[in-house]
Each structure stands twice: as structure tokens, then as C-alpha cells.
Amino acid sequence: MVVFGDLEQLNSFPTIAVWSAVKFVIHDRPKPTYAFLPLITDPDNVDKQTLFRSLDNNEKKYITTEAHSPIFAVVMRKIGVNKQLECHG
Fold first, then answer.
1. Sheet arrangement for strand 16-27
2. How many other CB atoms are found less than 10 A from the CB of residue 7?
3. Domain of life, per the record (predicted)?
4. Nearest to 20 by CA among 55, 65, 72
């Protein structure tokens, strides 16, 4: 079930494209980068560097280097709309 304000919408399992528990990771050197990394990954998939993105100077004020709690993220196909996805955390 997804809640939008006062509106509740039930989504069937086939609308789920992908889900994962992720954690926010930030690296300060040589330049600030960040990524949402899956908590559980394939051990053979060691190249996580491709997931990291540069941190814009305007974004730095919103980010702390303190530990962040993991979140559960789910990407779902929007009901009634072709080729549109919704992400919920």
C-alpha cells in the first residue's frame, strides 16, 4: 500500500520493479562523492565505484558525515501509466 496524503493506493506485487535495503555512503577524498549502496550484494560484484556520484557544492550543506540509518527502497511501475516508475523509501 502507498499513501499519498489522505489517498491510499493498493499496488499488486507485479508492479514492483526492484526493491532493496540501501545505506547512504559518502567519501570525502579526493573529492566528495556519495552513493546509496545495497546492504546485501553479490560478493563477486566488487566494483561499487560506478555507483558513486559527485557531490555538488549546493548539496554539501544538506549532507552530514555522520552515520545514516539504512532505508528500504522500492521502485514500482506507476499504475495506469506506461513506462513510468515511482520510487518509495
1. 53-54, 33-38, 16-27, 71-77, 85-88
2. 7
3. Eukaryota
4. 72
d(CA 82, CA 27): 37
**CB neighbours (10 Å) of residue 77?**
16
What region, left, alpha or beta, does residue 13 occupy, with left being phi > 0 and alpha being psi -120 to 50 degrees? alpha
Per-residue pLDDT of the chain (89 residues; tens, 9 = 90+): 555 556 666 667 778 888 889 888 888 778 888 888 888 876 666 677 788 888 887 877 777 767 678 898 888 887 777 788 888 88
